[in-house]
C-alpha cells in the first residue's frame, strides 16, 4: 500500500526532528495503569527531537501515543495517500502517529471509538498480537472499559494463573518498514516495538449507523464515566473491576464461550 508514498523514503527520525523537533510531547511507559488517573495519563514530557534521539540510541519503555504531528506540520499529508480505493469514511483530520523505543509495549486494548485502522510502520520492527472482539471476556476485559487486565504477559501468558486464556485464538504479526496492517473495528491489539521506530494509523468510520452510534456512546459515556469513577473511587474501584474481569473470564471459560 505504501510503495508510492513519499513518506516511505522521506520519513526518518532525522527528518522528523528537522520539522518538529522543538515540540514538547507526552510520554507513556509500560507501567500498569494508575487507578487514580485517567487512562492514557502521561508518565513524562520531553522535547520531541530529544525523544527521537533517545529511541535510536538505546532501549527505553517510553513511547508516544496518538500524536497528531500533521496538526503542527500540515504538509506531511502530501507524503501519504489515503487508501480510498479500499474503503471510505476516513477521518482525515486525525492521522495519528505512535513512537516507541525498543521493548516498549502498548497494553492490550481495542480503540474506544471503534474505527477501522490502517496501521503502517516505519524505521524498524514491531510485534503485534490481535484478537477478535468476540474473545473480550476471555481476555479478562476490564468492565466498562476497552482494555484488558494488565497482569498477564500477552506474548507468553501463564495459563495456570489465567486459565481463561487457554484456547483463545488470535493473530500474530511482525511489521517491518513500510508494512501496513489492517485492523477492523473492535479488533483487540497488543504491540511491542522491537526497534526504536514509529507508526502511522489512518482511521476510518464504519459505514453502519449502529456502529457509529456505539462509537459516539463509547466516547461520550463509557470513556468519560470510566475516568470519573477511577479518579473518584481510585484503588477500590480498580480492584473491584479487576476481580469482576476475572470472574467474567472464568464464567465465559466454563460456558465454552464464545461459541465457534
Automatic annotation (TrEMBL):
InterPro entries: Cupin_8, JmjC_dom. GO terms for molecular function: metal ion binding; oxidoreductase activity. Keywords: Iron, Metal-binding, Oxidoreductase. Pfam families: Cupin_8 (PF13621). It comes from the Bacteria. Its cofactor is Fe(2+). Residues 47-221 form the JmjC domain. PANTHER family: BIFUNCTIONAL PEPTIDASE AND ARGINYL-HYDROXYLASE JMJD5, HYPOXIA-INDUCIBLE FACTOR 1 ALPHA INHIBITOR-RELATED. This is JmjC domain-containing protein. It comes from Pedobacter cryoconitis.
